[in-house]
Amino acid sequence: MIKDVVVDDDCVVLDCDPNNSVAKVNNKANYGSKSNDLLIVAEKGQIACRDFPHPRHLCVKYPFNSTPHYKHCDQCHCYVCECRAPCPLWNSDSVISNDRHCHATYKEERWKSLKKQLLNKRNPINVQPSASLRTGRQDLTKVDKLGQLIDSLSQSLTSLEQLLKKKKGQIYKGY
């Protein structure tokens, strides 16, 4: 009797630790054994958190929970500095161990606030307007003056139209 198999790609139940690297799972001690374990011999395509730039805590090559945090691949970036790892504060002896950026993750509020502070330092709000802003203000002043002039001319035209209508009415009445 053949059973109908339902394939559902949206949900996969893993019976192993997904944080273990492929090399750890596929070590040579298991190769050739008669177990029913799955052996990965090849892969196709690119993996986002391995083949493209990614924060260190999301690295697939060096899982954050099972490898030393200072280790990084060629695509790892510092979560705080947003630069390629290692940043100057990655694993520096001049920084307290817990404050080294290699430990940074989006899950901790202190790293989020430090990242925000660093971004604010990079993009400070200027108190003094730049030359282009001053020029823009001068242009706005000119536009305001032109607007006032147009309003004044419009009122004058309205007055002239009313005067002309009055004159036409007087002409038709025979005055």
Tell me about this structure.
The chain is mainly alpha-helical and 175 residues long. The chain has a domain at 47-123. The chain has helices at residues 22-25, 48-51, 109-122, 131-172, and strands at 54-55, 76-77. It has a two-stranded parallel ribbon with strand order 1-2. The mean pLDDT is 75.
Task: Set down the secondary structure blueprint.
Blueprint: H1 22-25, H2 48-51, E1 54-55, E2 76-77, H3 109-122, H4 131-172
Parallel strand pairs: 1-2
Major β-sheet annotation: 2 strands, parallel
Helix/strand structural class: mainly alpha
Which word captures the global form?
Answer: elongated
Number of discrete helical segments: 4
Catalogue the unreliable spans: none
Helix content: 25-40%
Biggest sheet, strands in spatial order? 1-2
Q: Report the sheet-strand fraction.
A: under 5%
Radius of gyration: 36 Å
User: Helix-strand pattern, N to C?
Assistant: HHEEHH
Q: What is the arithmetic mean of pLDDT? A: 75
What is the terminal separation in angstroms? 114 Å
What is the number of beta strands?
2
Note the main attributes of this structure.
175 residues; mainly alpha; two-stranded parallel ribbon; 4 helices; 2% strand; elongated; RPM1_Interactor
Question: What's a quick, concise take on this entry?
Answer:
The chain has helices spanning 22-25, 48-51, 109-122, 131-172; strands at residues 54-55, 76-77. With 175 residues, it is mainly α.
